[in-house]
Amino acid sequence: MNENSWPYPLEYDKEETISCEVLVLGGGIAGCMAAIAAARDGKEVVLVEKGATKMSGAGGSGCDHWESAATNPCSKVTPEELTQSMMDDNDGYNNGISHYIECREGWDCMLDIEKMGGKIRDTGDEFKGAEFRDDDSKLMFAYDYENRFTLRIWGSTFKPAMYKELKRLGVKIYDRIMVTSLLTAKNGDEIQCIGATGMHTRTGKFFVFKSKSSIMCMSRPARIWLFSAELPGLAEFRPTQCIGDGHAMGWRAGAEFTMMEKSVGAEFSAAGRSYPPYGAGNNHNTWYAASMIDATGKEIPYADRDGNILKTVSERFKPAKGQKYFMKGGNIDDANYEIDGPETLSLDKFEHGTYKIPLYADLSTLPEAERKVIWGMMIGEEGKTKVPIYQNYTRAGFDPEKHVLQCYGTGWRSGQFLPQERQLFGLPGGFMNDWQLQSNIKGLFVAGDALYASNCYGHAAATGYYAGRHAAKYAADAEMKEPSISQIENEKKRIFAPLKNNPAKSIGWKELNMGIAKTMQNYCGDVKHDELLDIGLTVLKEYEEDILSQTFAYNPHELTRLLEVFDILTNAQIILLASKARKNNSKSLCFTKAGSADEKTSEKKLIILKNEEGEIKQRELPVDFFGDLQENYEKHNTDYLKTNSHVE
Amino acid sequence: MSNKLRALKAEMPAANPIIIDDEKCIACNKCVEICQVDLFVPGAEKGESPLVLYPGECWYCGNCVVVCPVEGAITLRHPLMNQARWVAKSDLLKKNK
Q1: Which of A252, A313, A590, B7 is at a distance of 20 to 30 A from B20, taking alpha carbons?
Q2: What is the pLDDT of residues A143-198, one digit of tens each?
Q3: Residue at A165 is within a domain
Q4: Which residues of B touch A57 (CB under 8 A)?
């Protein structure tokens, strides 16, 4: 399609300036909750979203369970216990502040979303009497049925409900705008965030947003190692447009990042080796605790953490003898003994020839309620299972009472990857935060997947609401500042430069992304070598200096994709720098460096990096730098504790 | 570019994720407006079905099908390589005998 037939007006030369008190960058779960909180505080709020807020973000199309709602009325664990377990499970490499907020306020968020119109209870009594249901409250639980802190939810109803609430509160929503940079001002040694720039993804129009405070609510980096030029949308677990723009613009503006050296062996890439999430045989997450059978129909037994074989399905949802609670069934993340849940015997424990491959997930022998809650409710409400899995498989004749679904890898991985194929998953790195969820850039608050060691829906919602409150409070005392003209002009030059090139000679976004992915596979694989990391940095620097000026985009849509890959290039560089900065091996960070020793307990430190006008600055903090969780939380949230709820 | 040359440039994509039934589509463009990746563009003329301009970028979330007001006007289809296999359990047990 050439310029003449592009269906939207081309407005690269137009500009609009918008002012507000609180600016929300990214309208996913965290962004919506942040905007709602700030608007309820009486602030004038603008929300900017690259897609369409009604169903945008990693959880926009749904979510089937909400973890760590420790304060729900049926829970038998405390937020303190649960956060401590999350910290211990990762040898301290976890975000104590943000996960404590998740545990402490997740249930408040859920009640709030219910008031907005989201469905969190089995109001139709479809599962009345089921073991996982509390018949008084009609709440339904997953994993540990005795301790009841993870809830099964109808997440496809959530985002549209939040959208309605945003409208009701008068939040100004700007959809189809890619945020391209943070606007900053210097105040002595301090950097302040005073707004952001953006580009309309259909018209190319340039936007300047001015604000007193801003909240970064974008997703985590993706497509660093994994890319497919044919099927880029399937290259990663999260949506195509969620590639970590926020990390890149934060880095360029001088924000601090930590744990960026952490990456895991790839688990999800349906453009390559794995199958659509939850669409092949497995027994984790949404599919917990499906029975697993071998090619002759023989069941693989479940065992508790001590290896005791579990005889009934019911036992798969109970803690082991002497165990207070378990976090998730299955040891997918190599859970510590303390919180390790039931799991089928692993393949390496199989006596030779006892079981025949392939394995299958079998719902047919589960109690009816368990079968129906997996196939129907959870497969249906999870992110992208309603249409491509539940509806399409059903239409093609899949009957969970008769059919068994084939496995292609072990557990939920549904595919076998190469060691150099990596992903940011399972509590990856991100923005460093304090107890206000503020970054080192004053007035820039952070929520959801942009935070370091983030994951899951409940975490996004709770940290979003929390950051929204604190950003609103900050805005109340802050002054609006005029952004510098040179900052704006430089940004325009950067983002529109590719339009001037000759397509016949230029490099497109896919070629650039492929180049970055291969560089990262070559020089930043499963085992890090300092010499290779250096070469990787040299190659990416060359891309930055020589290649970016040779890129081209046909229209605003392609330019958006290209600017995303510019951000991917920045994110890949942060990962290389962070990998260089860490000297020793760390199991919890899935980090191995050639010729290095395993870190000692005394060496467990967060390495924090920032880019200060081109110079890399590094500092370290103990992993538990945030102090006593309950005490500090209460100190920083006296107002919230007075009302102790979201809605007046 | 002449039509002849245009045909020469045509290439089947690696996947056809979104199949629009022109007979059923009412050209309301709800799919265009909900798509987070923005891979559709509206039809060139009023009343024309949207065009799937960037099929490779599809994330397969199914939002376009969810918001479509006409049952069956949009079908979401995973590429062949991602169509998982299932079998009747009774067949496995039969083989075992």
Answers
A1: B7
A2: 999 999 999 999 999 999 999 999 999 999 999 999 999 999 999 999 999 999 99
A3: yes
A4: 36
